Amino acid sequence: MEKLNYAVLKASGYDGYILENAPEKVLQFGEGNFLRAFTNYWFDVANEKAGWNGKCVLVKPRGSHGRKTQIELLNEQQGLYTLYLRGNVAGEKIDRKRVISSVSRCLNPTDSKEDFDALMALAESDDLEYVVSNTTEAGIVFDPACQLSDTPCASFPGKLTQVLYRRCQAGKGGLIILPCELIDNNGKELQRCVNQYIDLWGLDEGFRTYVNEACTFCSTLVDRIVPGGIKDEAELNRLAQENGYIDEVIDVGEVFGVWNIEGPAWLEDKLPFKKAGLNCPVVPDVVPYKKRKVRILNGAHTGFVLGAYLAGYDIVRDSMHDDAIRGFMNKMLYEEVIPTLPLDKKDLEDFAAAVQDRFDNPFVNHELMSISLNSTSKWRARIMPTFLDSVEKNGTLPQCITMSFAAYIAFYTNDIQELTDKALVCRRVKGNTYGCSDDRWVLEFYYDHRNDSIPALVHAVMTNEQMWGQDLTQVPGFEAATVENLNKIRTQGALAAFASCL
Asked: Kind of pairing, strands 220-223 and 258-262?
C-alpha cells in the first residue's frame, strides 16, 4: 500500500474537500499534533467554506538532532494528513474523518541552511498574511545570546524578529500574529520579546514602528483536547485498509474547539473563520474567556476527580456515568461557578454543557490520576478564586466547592503508607495504593500530619499560607464545614459525601 499524497488520495476514491494549490498565506512555527488538529484544521475549513484559498508553511521551531521528524514525514506526504475528530456531542458518538490539505510544505531552518533561506524568502512574500505559533509555554522567551546574524536564532521570538526585519526591509506589509502558547497575554509577551531584540541588536526606529504599528500581535486562547496520533498497530492497519493509503502522521482531536482571539473589531472580518462558520470569535479582551475555561473546564476537573478516584473510578468518562458525581459536578458549575463569571449566562451555560460532553468522550481514556498531579496549586488557581468570589457575593459557603476542598485533603491523606522520593503513597478503599504527586514540600507537609485528628489536620492545612496565599480559617464557617465534610468522606465514602450535596 502506498503512502498518502495527492495522487494516492485521488486513486483511493476519497470524496472529501481537497485544495492542492493555493498561495502561502500562513507562516506557522510548530508542526506538532495540536496545531495540526487546531489551526491547520481551521484554515482547511476556511478554504472549503469561505473560499479563503490559502496554505500554511510549517516551521520546526527546534532542530531534529538527527531524528526523522514529522516535518520530513509531512513533506513526504506533500503536506497531507488525516485528522479524526472524535467525541460525544449531546449524547451522540461522533467520529469524523477529514484529510487536511491546508499545509503546502514544511521547513527545518535549524538543521538546513536551504530551509533557512526559504524561510527568509517567504518573509518577503506578498501573499503572506499571518504568523501562527505553538512552541510550548517555554517558547516565548527572550534569549540574549541570539544575534541577528544567526541562521537562525535559537529562540522563537528571535526567529520571528528575523522574519519581520527581512519583511520590513523588503517593504512588505505588516503581519497578523496569532500565538497559541498557553501563557497569559501570549501576544503581548511575544511582542515584548521582539522589542527586546530590537533593543539588543540596535535596529532602527523605523523597524520598531513597523513591528508595533504595522503588525498586529493578538493574544489568543485555544481550547481543544488533542490526544495526538494513533499508536495501536491494529487500528492503524484497519484505517489504512479503509482509507486505501498509509498515513504516518495521522492526528486525532476532540470534536469541541474554540479559538478566542483578542484584537481590533476589523480583524473578525479580515480572518476567514467567521465566514466559514467556525467557533473563532474576535474579542476586545481574552481574559474573561480564559477565566471561563479555567474556572469551568479546569475547575470541574479539579473539583470532582479526587473524590471520584477515592470512590473507585479511574477514568473521567466512567465518572460521568455515575449520577452522584455528574450531578455534583453540574451543581458546582451551574449554581456555584457560573454566577461568579463576567460573561453572558447563556454563553457560560453552553460552555458548561459542552464540558459534560467532552468529559464523556468515548474515544479518550483520560485517567483521573493524571489530572490529580499538583492538585494543591490547581485547587488554588482553578477553584479558590470562584470559592472566594462566591462567598463574597452570597455571604454563604458554596456547598459543592466546599466539599471539593475536603475531597482534596482526603485524597492526600487517605491511609498514608509512605513517602518515597517520588510520591506520597496512600491507599484507597478499593484496596490499591496510589501516589500523590506534588511539590516536595506539600508531600512532606501531609506526611508530617498523617497522624493528626481531622480537626487538627484541617486547621493545619487551612492555615498553611504557603499553600493558599492566605489563612483560609478566616473564611466564616469554612473550617467547621471542612471538618464535617472530611469526616463524612472518611466514614461514609466519597460517593455518599458527593451525593449529600445534591
From this structure: antiparallel
